[in-house]
Design a protein that fits this description.
The complex is a heterotrimer. By secondary structure, chain A is an all-alpha fold. Chain A is built from 15 helices and no strands. The longest helix of chain C has 29 residues. The interface between A and C is large, with 53 and 51 residues.
Chain lengths: ~350, ~500, ~325
């Protein structure tokens, strides 16, 4: 199927383009404002409440940063996969499995010292996410099954699988809910800012972004990965191992999404729960696109969407605008981002009109 | 005063952005005349014909048919006026039948539900009248190339074409099949059809056509009766200045004695299947020695492309052996072959050679990024990469704003120079070049040919795959001919005759 | 054997298989039109969701189910045309646009649902379509429960299978769609309006997908729930491959999925010992198996996913 041909190619042709990204965001907010006005609320009031809640206080910023972590980690993974020409929509399921692995190890290793337990949890989470993503890679490389659909299907399978595990083998024996036992203190990511929930996961994001940047632009394998994403046939012709590169794209995405699950479990929930993610893995696709698949751009757009999500519930309670407005804005951002291609066409059309008249 | 020409195009001007593809072009063709439209790649022939077919609206100019000014804004309009095109790449839907292809876009066969039965009957009638051997219910994909071309002609006739345009129609035919086409065209002309024959093959123009118009850089440089011109004169007009393509006789030979060394490349009983399990390469054996250019001739689609892909490693080998520089590489990864000195100049540079969004710098270092000095310990060394790019751009005369310019924005000739520069600057011991001059003008072609001869002189083996006999004849020490996937003949330079080559390309032993 | 055919459990299973197959089938028919014309409609999922939502709201507001159906179809056409603008006119990456549309559909439906109905605990309901009484036809073994215990919308859906087959195989529009999907340049040189045909196909595609979504809210459940399509639009893409992009093939492949879905619903009640989560996975796992086993055999249209630029083909 042609689905897999050049998703990466298109993205790279976007100019490194901060302007374009910002314009798309602005346009999406503008349409969002119209929707708010349609509700009968002043957009300024609603957006004001939103950003006040997300960025207007120490705690608000901390919450926004907490929300940035899973979005950015998944977004980085998806961006790297995109760069390899892999359209991995499976970050959601990979995150769930990563979180489950982290939760299981966290319970199993209760009593281990933190410097052993936390790395063990993180590693198992990355491994679980990577393996789940590797399954889609295997289906693609061995059977040519398109990853777009298999990863989405695997998301549903993963969520049911996790539900089974949490209702069964991993269930907290002392509780009624489908969740693991609470993690001991050594299985939790340390809090960075006293009095808030801001945890060390944000440091993982920064390290991951720097490493991803160096990998893409300074390492030979990063160069090869970009070549594979832009033109796999030319890559093959130049002696690059395309299949291995594609596999890597899947694995790194799964590992990073798995780490996002780890960070949610060890930093926020402090146990594995059934509703670990409200769709981080899907929002992260938009995060990756808006960030033009550049690591720092991804972190910035993750922060933006995190603020949007954190502020949304306050906006709902304060101004009565449904918080799902954020999902609308997220979708619109992508459509406007791609829609920029319309501008030159529109210009030609207008020019053509004038020429015919004159 | 004589009657006005049946087709009269005047002052046709077409621009794409700042590029003028047609600049005030005039073309007049009488009924019953076969008129050659001659010009190099990019001279504006196809643009002019797309205007005639209603696919492009010119910025200026008018078209008269039988003396009447006709606005040609759409394909429908052109069709209604009796203009039929036979495109170089056939405009046939391979999964549909002949009758369905003929009915496509033709509401006279039924506005909502096409009447395929009646159409098929009419197709049979037309086919009989003009001696075209066609089954209306056959699927296009099951027809031979020559058969598909007959369908293209029939499609135009079905629509009542009085002006028939053929764009490079012989490029995909053997010399013998081309003769068959010429017979059909002469019969059509005798019936009063005006025929425009686009070509850059001078011998065909001389043999078939009554008048000739030469285009260069979007302008008409001459119109004359074919009988009053000669091939040399036409060639000069087509190219402008006389650019002599290099010939092997004038090139220095390699210092390596071919007999003394083992062949650089040896292929034994190589067989390849395609995705559908059909044999594309059929037990091919051949060898290329150091300092030798071996030409692979054949009509397009007879397995040459697949053979080249199998040798460079892009295609899986069914059975047989490929030995490169003494090492068996039949199933080896491409990186291994490159390390052994293989360089590939593929047919489709956009798809196979270049990463168009990337810079010249990145494209030039593509195969060598893992080698010293371009990286160390997996870290890219940017200054070394930049140095290579500058070297290649200077040595191969790549015209660009700088090494950072993206390859996709270069002209075709400069893109091919990047491909050549990357491949040849490594001092390869074997060059596999497939249609290396496709789509290039004469100047760029000469450059490419010179570079291949220079590699030969430097002691490399060259396997040159081309469907252009002129190219094969000018450059090859030895020629092998492929037909239906198999090597059907081989001759040394001294023993080459065009006639024997033609027969072999048609699959007949000679 | 006959005993099984009239066993109430089996009869119920057959009738449920068909009922569960129909939404996926309608979406897959929509996908068929789009893909045969050369446009990859990843947005089926979102179009289904929009259809389910708009159909529900319109039926709720007016009290007429048919108004709901008609509104859903119109909304589907609109969604299809939006996808068309991006994929046909702008030549954007068809996967990215499709995914974006799906995410947008989740947001918009959920936003307006809460706007209209509030976030209360009482879920608004409508009286859904009820099965038509076809008398003794319903008692024919096997065929009866499969075909003659359905509601009006289901018969419309089954009729659309025949219509789609006829349109694709026999009509000029079908011929144009096939030509445009295989070789748009050839179609253009013969005066076929490539963009026009593709817009028409993608609009119909949206209509069919939305109808499939409306079936979920207006026939299967009588309610609207956020994300109630649950990946059926993506499953439809796999159905297309399994059904080789032919109307009848799509019908049969959808029935297979409907049967799998019906089976897992029944198995959940039975004491099989298999955890219900594994049963819930069944349709998704089946989709993956289909993709792995049948890709590359169905022969996708040659121009699938490739934008067509007018007047720029066959450049010198």
């Amino acid at each position: 199927m042609t689905v897999t041909d050049h998703p990466g190619a298109m993205r790279l042709r976007l100019p490194p383009g901060l302007v374009g990204s910002l314009a798309a965001v602005a346009a999406a907010f503008l349409v969002g404002a119209l929707l708010i006005a349609a509700v009968g609320v002043s957009p300024l009031t609603a957006y004001g409440a939103l950003f006040e809640a997300a960025l207007g206080s120490r705690n608000g910023i901390a919450e926004t940063l907490v929300r940035t972590v899973p979005l950015a980690l998944c977004g980085l993974g998806i961006a790297l996969a995109f760069r390899a020409g892999v359209f991995n929509v499976g970050a959601e399921g990979q995150l769930f499995l990563g979180g489950t692995a982290a939760g299981a190890i966290g319970v199993l290793g209760a009593g281990w010292p933190a410097y052993v337990l936390l790395p063990a949890m993180a590693l198992s989470a990355a491994l679980a996410g990577g393996l789940w993503s590797g399954l889609a890679a295997w289906l693609k490389l061995r059977f040519r099954a398109d990853e777009l659909i298999t990863t989405i299907m695997l998301n549903y399978v993963a969520i049911h699988l996790v539900s089974f595990l949490l209702h069964g083998p991993l269930k907290d024996p002392n509780g009624a809910l489908a969740q693991t036992a609470r993690l001991t203190g050594d299985g939790r990511l340390p809090v960075l800012l006293a009095g808030t929930r801001l945890h060390a996961g944000i440091l993982i994001v920064l390290v991951a972004a720097i490493l991803a940047h160096l990998f893409l632009w300074r390492r030979t394998n990063g160069f090869r990965l970009r070549v594979v994403g832009l033109n796999p046939r030319a890559a093959e012709n130049a002696g690059i191992d395309v299949r291995r590169t594609i596999l890597f794209g899947f694995l790194i995405c799964g590992a990073l999404a798995g780490l996002a699950g780890f960070s949610e479990v060890a930093g926020v929930q402090r146990r594995m729960i059934e509703n670990l993610s409200p769709g981080f893995g899907y929002t992260a696709i938009i995060v990756a696109l808006l960030g033009a698949t550049n690591p720092f751009g991804v972190v910035a757009s993750a922060f933006l969407f995190a603020a949007l999500q954190i502020g949304a519930s306050t906006m709902e309670s304060a101004a009565g605008v449904p918080s799902t407005l954020t999902t609308v804005i997220q979708g619109l951002v992508v459509l406007f981002l791609i829609g920029r291609a319309a501008l030159p066409l529109l210009r030609d059309w207008v020019a053509d009109r004038f020429r015919r008249r004159g | 005063m004589s009657t006005p020409p049946f087709l009269d195009m005047r002052g046709i001007t077409v621009t794409f952005g700042s590029f003028v593809a047609n600049d005030g072009v005039d073309l007049a063709v009488d009924a019953g005349e076969i008129h050659a439209l001659l010009g190099e790649n990019g001279a504006g022939k196809s643009t002019l014909m797309r205007v005639l077919a209603g696919l492009l609206v010119p910025a200026a100019g008018e078209i008269r048919i039988a003396g009447e000014i006709e606005p040609l804004g759409s394909a429908h309009e052109a069709m209604r006026l009796g203009i039929g095109m036979v495109h170089q790449h056939f405009m046939l839907v391979p999964t549909l039948t002949v009758a369905e292809n003929v009915c496509l876009g033709l509401s006279s066969t039924g506005r909502f539900i096409p009447d395929l039965k009646t159409a098929a009957a009419k197709i049979r009638d037309l086919a009989t009248t003009y001696g075209l051997d066609i089954d209306p219910n056959a699927r296009i994909a099951d027809l031979s190339i020559a058969g598909q071309q007959r369908v293209e002609i029939l499609k135009a006739l079905y629509r009542g074409a009085r002006i028939l345009v053929l764009d490079e129609p012989t490029a995909v035919l053997t010399p013998q099949e081309a003769e068959g086409l010429f017979r059909i065209l002469r019969a059509l002309a005798a019936e009063g059809t005006a025929i425009i024959f686009i070509s850059h093959k001078l011998n065909e123009v001389m043999a078939l056509t009554g008048k000739v118009t030469v285009l260069r850089q979007g302008k008409v440089v001459a119109t004359a009766r074919t009988a009053e011109t000669d091939a040399r004169g036409l060639a000069r007009m087509m190219v402008g200045a006389e650019i002599a393509l290099p010939k092997i006789e004038d090139a220095p030979t390699s210092t390596a004695a071919p007999e003394a060394t083992a062949p650089i490349l040896s292929v034994t009983d190589l067989t390849c299947l395609d995705a559908r399990g059909l044999v594309r390469v059929d037990r091919v054996s051949l060898a290329v020695a150091a300092g030798e250019i071996v030409g692979v001739a054949g009509v397009d689609g007879n397995g040459q492309q697949e053979l080249a892909e199998a040798i460079v490693g892009l295609r899986k080998v069914g059975s047989g052996r490929v030995v490169l520089a003494g090492v068996e590489v039949t199933a080896a990864p491409i990186a291994r072959r490159i390390a052994l000195g293989l360089a590939h100049i593929p047919e489709d540079r956009h798809r196979t050679a270049l990463v168009e969004p990337m810079s010249i710098r990145d494209n030039v270092v593509l195969e060598r990024i893992g080698d010293a000095p371009f990286s160390r310990g997996g870290w890219i060394r940017r200054d070394a990469v930049a140095g290579l790019a500058e070297k290649v751009m200077a040595a191969f005369d790549v015209r660009a704003s700088g090494p950072g310019q993206s390859v996709g924005t270069l002209s075709g000739g400069n893109q091919q120079k990047v491909v050549l520069g990357r491949a040849l600057s490594r001092d390869p011991s074997l060059v596999v070049a497939v249609q290396p001059a496709r789509g290039l003008d004469v100047g760029a072609t000469a450059f490419v040919h010179c570079q291949l001869l220079a590699r030969r002189a430097a002691g490399a083996g060259v396997l040159l795959v081309s469907t252009e006999l002129d190219e094969i004849l000018a450059l090859s020490d030895r020629v092998v001919v492929m037909f239906k996937g198999a090597v059907v003949g081989e001759m040394t330079r001294a023993a080459i005759s065009v006639e024997r080559l033609g027969l072999m390309m048609a699959g007949r032993a000679a | 054997m006959l005993g099984l055919l009239t066993d109430p459990t089996f009869v119920g299973f057959l009738s449920a298989s068909m009922r569960l197959a129909i939404p996926i089938m309608l979406a897959a028919l929509g996908g068929l039109l789009a893909e045969r014309s050369g446009v990859l409609n990843i947005g089926l999922e979102g179009m289904m969701l929009v259809g389910a939502f708009v159909g529900f709201v319109a039926a709720y507001a007016t009290g007429h189910l048919m108004v709901g159906v008609a509104s859903a179809v119109l909304a589907g056409i609109a969604a299809g045309l939006i996808l068309g603008v991006y994929t046909i006119t702008l030549g954007a990456n068809q996967v990215v646009v499709g995914i974006a549309l799906n995410l947008l559909a989740i947001g918009i439906t959920s936003f307006f649902y809460r706007l209209i109905f509030g976030a209360g605990t009482e879920r608004p309901r409508i009286d859904a379509f009820v099965p038509l009484d076809l008398g003794s036809l319903a008692d024919i073994p096997f065929i009866g429960p499969l075909l003659f215990r359905q509601d009006a919308l289901a018969y419309v859906a089954l009729g659309l299978v025949l219509v789609t087959w006829f349109v694709m195989a026999k009509t000029r529009f079908g011929l144009d769609v096939r030509a445009v999907g295989e070789h748009p340049e050839a179609a253009e040189t013969l005066g076929v309006n490539v963009h026009g045909i593709r817009y028409f196909a993608i609009g119909l595609s949206g209509a069919l997908a939305a109808l499939g979504g409306a079936f979920l809210s207006l026939s299967a459940t009588g309610v609207f729930i956020d994300g109630m399509t649950a990946g059926r639009g993506y499953i439809a893409l796999a159905i297309l491959i399994l059904g080789r992009r032919h109307a009848v093939g799509v019908l049969l492949a959808s029935l297979l999925f409907g049967a799998a879905d019906a089976l897992q619903l029944r198995a959940q009640i039975l004491p099989t010992g298999v955890p219900f989560q594994f049963l819930l996975m069944l349709p998704y796992v089946l989709t993956i198996i289909v993709l792995a086993g049948f890709v590359g055999r169905g022969g996708a249209p040659a121009a699938l996913g490739v934008p067509f630029r007018r007047g720029r083909s066959n450049k010198e």
